[in-house]
Amino acid sequence: MKNMSLSRAMTFAVVSAAAMLSLAGPLSAQQGAAPAAPPVAQQAPAAPQPPAALPPAAASDAAASPAEREGKLLKAAAAELKELSPWTMFKSADVVVKAIMIGLAFASLVTWTIFIAKMIELTVVQRKLRSALAKIADARSLAEAQFALGARGSVLASFLAAAMREARLSAGISSDAGIKERAASNFAEIVRAEARRIRLGMGLLATIGATSPVVGLFGTVWGIMNSFIGISKSQTTNLAVVAPGIAEALLATAIGLVAAIPAVIIYNHFARVTKGYLELVNRASGAAGRLLSRDLDRTHVSSGGQRARGAAE
Fold this sequence. Notes:
This protein has 313 residues and is mainly alpha-helical. The protein has helices at 2-33, 56-63, 66-82, 86-91, 95-135, 142-149, 155-169, 176-198, 202-234, 239-312.
């Protein structure tokens, strides 16, 4: 009995093993067929390739995200800000802004040229006229005053020459009032001519002082407009990216103020100095008029004495 049960157990184990082997065969066949290519509908699409015409740098920029592009712009702006100086801003400015800056710099040069020239001129003419007035202070006639002045040219010499000419042309006329009136008219023309001459260049100073800030502001508006265009192109509103363009625009206003402020100050200074010089000119006109009046009175006295002597004879 014991041997029969042992043989039955062995037979059952052999049959079970054969059944398991028969089931494992189809499963292994299905697993071997699993790595086969999937259907066409389930295949992943191939990654698009960059156009062949784009260089590698352009392809990398096109593939970069907006954050990466903004980071590159910020790095470029930071490098530019490190080298930011008036000369750098001038070189990188727009053509219109450059032209405005050059014009304002030339206007500033003209202002300082006029300042130096007018200072020398006003100093010389004032000193010469004061010296001439001191020389004729003790003169008793027009001829004596002309002899004291000598050949030195000054506005006082013009007054004396006009008085002498009027006295010569009016010889034989007994009306002293008419002679003095005509001489005063000649003196007024000389004063006006001297005022026009001494104020030469001051109108240009007034123009520079009045228009330079407006011209500089126009350059600033133009530069800021270009900066806003750059903002739209770069698609970023970061201040570090647009700061160089705004700085270039503001430089135009700064140069305009540099040209305008000295022009206004120099104009006001010359207005005061010119007023003082014209007062000296009026003093010279009065001195010449007094000398003419003395000569006329002496002429009447001498003619009256001659008539008296003729009557006595």
